[in-house]
Specification:
Strand order of the largest sheet: 5-4-1-6-10-7
Shape: globular
Oligomer: single chain
Largest sheet: 6 strands, mixed
């Protein structure tokens, strides 16, 4: 399959409640740079990515625009108003791109590597979706709603899913629209 267009959706509209600083962790400064820019830069360096969409909280759009206006963007970057949930933010961004392949990445995860992008795109030749994952070093328990252990995963077969995730846009959009119709 020839890939015509690839877009990266970077999510940064979350509430950062676990962060505990009453501030969006994507906008924290590390080494003189907002956290989300580390992810932007990696996607910009990829020869495969033609556009980046940032899903941003409405009240932070102007701040993000100001940050982007201070730099030379290497690919077009579009700011999309994020939703109340991660799912809504992804959906809003999907509606703003026509790319064949989309990455979905958390802006607060700055340790993305360019090889993840290359590896995931390679997998997209055979699959409709792929993501980065690491083997679990921990014992993982599955419980019911009352916290009663139902099962223990076999550590050798247990993986912890991370971002970026990569999908054929049309399939991911179809799944989102199907879920929206259920609501």
């Amino acid at each position: 399959m020839k890939m015509k267009a690839v877009a990266a959706i970077i999510l940064m509209a979350g509430s950062s409640t676990r962060y505990g600083k009453n501030k969006n962790k994507n906008l924290e400064i590390i080494n003189h740079k907002p956290v989300f820019l580390y992810s932007v830069e990696v996607f910009e360096q990829s020869k495969e990515v033609q556009e980046i969409l940032l899903a941003v909280k409405k009240e932070e759009i102007e701040e993000v625009k100001a940050i982007l206006n201070k730099r030379r963007n290497k690919v077009p970057i579009q700011i999309v108003e994020g939703g109340d949930t991660r799912q809504e933010s992804v959906y809003h961004a999907l509606l703003q791109t026509q790319a064949n392949i989309v990455f979905v990445h958390d802006g607060a995860r700055p340790a993305i590597k360019e090889r993840y992008i290359k590896d995931l795109l390679k997998e997209m030749k055979d699959f409709k979706g792929a993501n980065v994952a690491v083997k679990s070093k921990d014992t993982v328990k599955i419980t019911d709603d009352k916290q009663i252990v139902l099962n223990t995963t076999y550590r050798a077969n247990t993986w912890l899913s991370q971002t970026p995730q990569c999908f054929h846009r049309d399939i991911l959009l179809e799944i989102h629209e199907k879920e929206r119709r259920k609501s």
